Task: structure prediction
Amino acid sequence: MSPNPLPQVVVRAATPEDAPVCGQICYDAFSAISGAHGFPCDFPAPEAAIGVLSMMFSNPGFYCVVAEAEGRIVGSNCLDERSAISGVGPITIDPGVQNLGIGRMLMQAVMDRAMGQGAAGIRLVQSAFHNRSLSLYAGLGFDVRAPLSCMQGRIPERNVPGCTVRPAQLADVDACDTLSRQVHGFSRKVELTEAIQQGTASVVERGGRITGYATVLAFFGHATAETNLDLEALIASVDSFGGPGILVPSQNSGLFRWCLAKGLRVVQPLTLMSVGLYNEPAGAWLPSILF
Ligand SMILES: CC(C)(COP(=O)(O)OP(=O)(O)OC[C@H]1O[C@@H](n2cnc3c(N)ncnc32)[C@H](O)[C@@H]1OP(=O)(O)O)[C@@H](O)C(=O)NCCC(=O)NCCS
Result:
């Protein structure tokens, strides 16, 4: 365990007013680590990170914390509490004070919160090239679950034969939720409902029934389906993917090779990690950058 050379560091709940400072730190931290390894930053500009953190800091479904040293914010972390499984991230520390134990404090804060709230498990997705975050999470008890490939590009066709993709409606939530429970063993109903209200969610129908859904085809969205065919229909239905790309489980060889054959390119490798309950998914899925 790192000695804490900054005993004056305090962790407190984040407020929406903290988003501009935390978003700048988030951008600086990701651009530094990604740039050092020759990868593009997860955020195109500080404003994008500020926008994401503003949303998280003001959504009651998220528990967010900041670390302050001598009254100055030096990092933040978020916990998605919208399902029985909590999702961590983004966690970022000011590049000037990294590797001093502050990240561990912010991880411990959200893990304590998740346990206190009775979460069945906690998950996160980390950049596979980042030695420090991998080591930090493993040391805190997270197990490596799945290698992921962030993929971007444009599939030539918008349709997959036999499948129909359409915008999801609130009336679809129960069918999608049944699917989520079948594939993952838990409900992601709140997240899906929010996505439907924001107009980003879609469902795929095959044989007259819903066989898959996506909250959004993007870095920040997840998708769940009965089969790879259903996921392929969802992936093909959009012109491009939001943010750096979609997260394809690299061990789903059939889907991964289909994406490659359709011209998608790998942007960066990532790793899904978990502590607590983890059911091996019984179906096809794309995690979000949270889980
Ligand atoms: C990842 C990040 C949040 C960690 O916060 P931090 O304050 O720098 O990290 P900490 O000092 O609390 O912890 C680092 C741990 O990794 C260990 N570590 C660092 N490099 C290591 C390596 N190469 N091998 C093994 N362990 C290593 C340290 O010893 C420490 O372990 P300990 O707590 O058991 O002593 C921070 O570095 C950051 O913002 N990075 C850029 C953005 C990012 O990648 N965020 C995570 C997205 S998944």
